[in-house]
Amino acid sequence: MWFFRSPEVVFGDDSLSYLGSLEIRRAVIVTDRFLKDSEPVNLVVSNLPEGAERMVVADVPPEPTYREMTASLDRIRSFEPDWFIAVGGGSSIDTAKVLFALYERPDISVYDITPLVRLNLRRKSRLAAVPTTSGTGSECSWAAVVSVEGERRKHELASKEILPDVAILDPRMVVGLPREQTRNTAVDAVVHAVEAYTSTWRNPFSDALAEKALQLITPNLPVVLAEPGNIASREAVHIGASMAGLAFSNSQIGLAHALGHALGAYFKLPHGKCVGLFLPYVVSYNYQAVKERYDRLNTIFPDKVRAEGFTETLKNYFREIGQPLTLEEAGVGRGEFTQSLEELVRLASEDTGVTMNARDASTEDIRRVLWEASGWRGDGA
Amino acid sequence: MPKFPSREWVEEYSKKLNENPAYRDAGRTWEGDILFVVEKDQAFPKTVYIYLDLYHGECRRAEYYESAEQLPKAAYTYRGPYTNWRRLINREIDPIQGILTGKFKLEGPMMQIMRYTRAAKEMVNTATMVNTEF
After folding, report:
1. Which end of chain B is more exposed for a tag (fewer CB within 10 A), N or C?
2. Locate the SCP2 domain: which residues (chain B) (predicted)?
């Protein structure tokens, strides 16, 4: 027995207008400080139903801690919203998920947001997500990532009850996304699709979504990077990223995410860049365990980059779009890498991504993959 | 061949845990005890308990109880009906999916346990190494 879970997904031209059809009386709009007075937030506000009151929470920093996420919780409780609307990337959407859960259940701790606890949410409010990046998949997932205060660690929260009720994929929200963020977030989506397709929890629903996600993203991402205003390609990447989000949310992520979480938390590097960096090495490590699956994915990538093996195809593709392939290329120095190595191994080995990876990975295996991805030769290489 | 659940099975399982390098690796920072509750159902007539004291990848103590009266307190409790335990040991149920689908229940501090899903998986893998009679 297993499940397929999804929000109601509204997509395409003018999809934000769907907000006007919802019964929204008092909306909390959760966004980050960079988007506060931006076109995406103004568009969301202008599409709210007539007479709807709003409160904008715009203090979400990148990769927030629990304290940063919940700084506005008292104000929100006084406002008594019936909807939370997240507008932003993964950090804003994850923050909205946490605020929604804690507004609904003032008696719980953020660490009660696990798949193992029944929360009984949605007694007072609903949750909508409007992504302004194409990649995190948070709008379609039941996970939220919190940076742990005072530690170089990220904590994954997950509950089917924090899955948004509605995800709105309006291409206008991503057309102005800067090149670097466009690449980093889309690479994250590629990794979501590949890891969902090979996770030990994979299933026919996640398979279909992962394949289609790669069909949409891989040819269109280079176009978007070359022509940022190309709406058709933007929309394809945007929809593909949400499909990849649905894919991993209904199966699981794998070792590239476990390593990427560790690296990103330790060195404060963008999440997509980190998980993408590890993917070719993880594919190489997993290859014999899921060879047929990787061979199938290899056929989906554009002819221009396709090699005989999937590892090389990924490297070719990432080279083409400017995604770093080693820690060295990502700007990590050899000294700081060797100094952090054991901590990275520990963080990655404690990440749930390891558990559902296509092949079991011991701490020694994790250490070896880290060395391979480093770009340097080490004791373990 | 030890029968599940029984004192002999618990002894054999504890021995296998301590011999399994994959479990030792996955649980190397784990400190805490866990109680497995095998609940009675149509295929098994009584509820029994397995207590494991696990520390840094080692099983320091393993006990089998047929009554709840003198059970040691454990940080975590993982419980489910006998038939689901049987399916778990036969690898027909994943230990974490088992919780998410309501076949098992886990009680205890949730924040810590989420860091040890790999150890949980290795504990089940180890159970499959016991030549078990049902």
Report:
1. N
2. 16-120
For chain B, say whether A359 makes contact (Cβ under 8 Å). no
Specify if B57 maps to a domain: yes
Q: What is the separation of C-alpha B121 from the centre of its chain, rounded to a whole number of angstroms?
A: 10
Residues A301 and A314: their CA atoms lie apart, in Å, by: 9
Q: Is A117 on the interface with B (CB under 8 A)?
A: yes
**Measured between CA atoms, how close is A211 to chain B, in angstroms?**
24
Q: What is the complex's ipTM, to 2 decimals?
A: 0.88
**Boundaries of domain holding B105:** 7-127
User: Is the CB of residue A343 less than 8 Å away from at least one CB of chain B?
Assistant: no
Smallest CA–CA separation between B10 and chain A, in Å? Answer: 25
What is the domain count for chain B?
Answer: 1
Sorting pLDDT into bands at 50, 70 and 90, what band is A10? very high
Measured between CB atoms, does B101 come within 8 Å of chain A? yes
Tens digit of pLDDT for each residue in A272-307?
A: 999 999 999 999 999 999 999 999 999 999 999 999
> Tell me, what's the pLDDT at A62?
86
For A12-164, list the strands marked E by DSSP.
Answer: 26-32, 53-60, 83-88, 126-131, 143-147, 154-158
User: What domains appear along chain A, each with residue ranges and CATH number?
Assistant: 8-173 (3.40.50.1970), 179-373 (1.20.1090.10)
- Note the pLDDT of residue A380: 46
Question: Which residues on A lie below 8 Å from B78 (Cβ)?
Answer: none
Here the CATH number for the domain that contains residue B114 is 3.30.1050.10
> Closest Cα of chain B to A353: distance in Å?
9
Measured between beta carbons, which residues in chain B are less than 8 angstroms from residue A355? 96, 117-118, 120-121
Helices (H), chain A: 39-46, 66-69, 73-79, 90-104, 179-198, 204-226, 231-249, 255-267, 271-286, 291-298, 310-321, 334-349, 352-355, 363-374
Residue B134 placed within a domain? no
Q: Which residue of B has its CA nearest to A357?
A: B118
Task: From A363, A331, A329, A327, select the one nearest A348 (Cα to Cα).
Answer: A363
